[in-house]
């Protein structure tokens, strides 16, 4: 399952490969979307141009001007520009940094299991507590993507509840 990131008036939904601004879907090319997501996932530090090129284009040869074009398109999609730099900041000669404050960046879950409540975010994980039979409370973390996988300690017998 992908994550959904919210900031300013924008929502970036990895699962749907969608960018929304002010509630309206904004069309972005796949590489522009990948640049946005990579910058968000690496927020808090400058991402070098070489790292972005490797992450988005892999081993294909692409010029830095192609990256600059995608950065400009990403800024336009997010309501930012090269002057304001309220979302994507340029670290001249080094790379780019996602600087907008996330209001949410939790894994998008299809639904919350009955009886569970979010407790606290831990990195990109979501920790929830569910009440098991007999009033016992169990904490569990949801992380990553793909089909659900549970690894319980041998002594945990209430996990099925």
Secondary structure: elements and pairs:
Layout (H helix, E strand, L loop, with lengths): L2 E5 L2 E4 L4 E4 L2 E3 L3 H12 L5 E2 H9 L6 H14 L10 E4 L3 E4 L3 E6 L8 E7 L2 E7 L5 E6 L19
Antiparallel strand pairs: 1-2, 1-8, 2-3, 3-4, 5-7, 6-7, 9-10, 10-11
Helix pairs in contact: 1-2, 1-3
Distance between the termini: 23 Å
Integer average pLDDT:
80
Question: What is the tally of beta strands?
Answer: 11
Placed side by side, the strands forming the largest sheet appear as: 4-3-2-1-8
Order of helices and strands: EEEEHEHHEEEEEE
Task: Explain what this protein looks like in three dimensions.
This protein is 22% helix and 32% strand. The chain has helices at residues 30-41, 49-57, 64-77, and strands spanning 3-7, 10-13, 18-21, 24-26, 47-48, 88-91, 95-98, 102-107, 116-122, 125-131, 137-142. The strands form three sheets. It has a five-stranded antiparallel β-sheet with strand order 4-3-2-1-8, with helices on one face. Helix 1 (30-41) packs across helix 3 (64-77).
Which terms would index this structure?
161 residues; alpha+beta; 3-stranded antiparallel sheet; 32% strand
